Amino acid sequence: MLTSVLGRCVTRFPPRKLDPETVCTRVVARLIEELACVDIAPDSPAWRDLLHGPETIGELRVYRGRGRVQKVVSSRFALASPSMDSHSVVVFTQPDSPVPHFGLDSVRLDQRVHLYVDLLPKRDLSVSLPYLDRCYLPLTEVRDELEHDTRFTPSLAPLRHRALLSPWHALYTLEPGDLDAAEQYVDRYVSHWASLLRSDAPELLPDPALVARDAVYRKTLYSRAVDPAWGLLDRVIGRDTVDDILTALSS
Description:
With about 250 residues, the protein is α+β, with helices and mostly antiparallel strands. The chain has one domain (about 20-250): 3-Layer(aba) Sandwich (oxygen-dependent coproporphyrinogen oxidase). It contains eight helices and ten strands. The strands form two sheets. It has an eight-stranded antiparallel beta sheet with strand order 3-4-5-6-7-8-10-9, with helices on both faces. Strands 1-2 form a two-stranded antiparallel ribbon. Strand 5 (about 70-80) and strand 6 form a beta hairpin. The N and C termini lie far apart (about 40 Å). About 30% of the residues are buried.
């Protein structure tokens, strides 16, 4: 079925069984339709093919944000060997906004799905207890449920990498058939993040002092020096393609 969106013809597909792609695209749909924090225009999203040699293996999209959202970076790529289907969404709030960035990875690697979701802190939590309580304490219940859900196997990022994430980050592997359950947990992270986006709490008011910190934080977090996964991807999809993704995330 075809529907018109801003004068364009868009194919609307019937519901399908959840896969890593659908988990991410539904989050983007919420950003556009429910939260209205993303611009859809001729230049938003900006599209770029991801190449491995002469072959197109995926795409990189950068959406312009609205209000407290600066931009949304969405990437996907698929490979036959190793068998991989990778999807990622990162929502960057404005550099001076204390509202955390939102990150989601949904990746099928061989017969397992790797899931990561987090609210990336814009302040140093050890010296910002009211901010911690506002942004992260409400995630304790969903985080505890995840820890006790036997369908999800915990994964561990390297300690150096974990130091840059929030203590409430979720990193698990699961069977593809359990993606329905995973999406419910992701939805709860998104809903809490959305409540922060709408909040006028004093801990979340713009602070120009955050701009410099955010620039350093993003360049550090999205770097090969901190996250060894990027080095592994260099060998799988090529350094130039990885550079395209890292530039979109870190700038």
